[in-house]
Q: What sequence folds into this?
């Protein structure tokens, strides 16, 4: 079973616009991780935010975490065509030995 | 340093056959976990190995098994293949010891298995 839900399921924007993806989860977490997947290939780790953090930045990425609402959001600013991919949130379970993934958001950036 | 290497990249098998997939983690990483990705079920955890011991197992039938060698390389085996086993199989590595809680996991490019 998946840890949470992501919305939107799909997002289509123009190059240069910002993209926001949301993730909700069901149980308490130690941290939340975001991954990107290009065209059914492997997952690339983007950013990790710990439960005691509220916001984290990495380049054009900004992640927020609201543990009271059990939700997180990933913001990609000034999007590029190369950002076209699927984005997944994931939470570690069972002492961090496994990740439980959301269903993912498919982002398409049109040039 | 080299990333996570999965072989083969693509595989076509017939129902009833068995298959073995291989994963070489990043040098020095001792934890290897496996995931199955399908359009219907998304990313599902299969199992995780650390220092040759299976520490965690997902909700998959016994036809799915794995092992880890002393050099941390891991294999997963699926016996008596079914059409529903067609999927992208991903492995991920971390150094273990809680490192994944700081740095996340590094994934391989996956093995695309098609069962016909």
A:
């Amino acid at each position: 079973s998946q840890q949470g839900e992501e919305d939107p399921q799909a997002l289509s924007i123009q190059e240069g616009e910002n993209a926001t993806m949301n993730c909700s989860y069901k149980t308490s977490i130690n941290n939340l991780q975001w991954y990107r997947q290009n065209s059914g290939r492997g997952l690339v780790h983007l950013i990790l935010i710990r439960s005691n953090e509220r916001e984290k930045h990495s380049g054009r990425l900004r992640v927020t975490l609201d543990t009271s609402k059990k939700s997180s959001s990933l913001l990609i600013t000034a999007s590029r065509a190369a950002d076209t991919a699927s984005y997944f949130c994931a939470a570690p379970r069972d002492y961090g030995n496994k990740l439980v993934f959301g269903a993912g958001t498919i982002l398409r950036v049109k040039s | 340093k080299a990333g996570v290497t999965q072989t083969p990249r693509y595989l076509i098998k017939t129902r009833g056959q068995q298959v073995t997939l291989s994963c070489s983690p990043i040098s020095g990483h001792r934890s290897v976990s496996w995931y199955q990705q399908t359009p219907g079920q998304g990313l599902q955890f299969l199992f995780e190995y650390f220092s040759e011991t299976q520490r965690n197992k997902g909700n998959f039938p016994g036809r799915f098994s794995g092992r880890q060698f002393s050099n941390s390389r891991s294999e997963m085996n699926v016996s008596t293949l079914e059409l529903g086993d067609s999927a992208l199989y991903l492995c991920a590595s971390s150094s273990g010891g809680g490192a994944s809680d700081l740095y996340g996991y590094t994934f391989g490019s996956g093995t695309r298995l098609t069962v016909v």
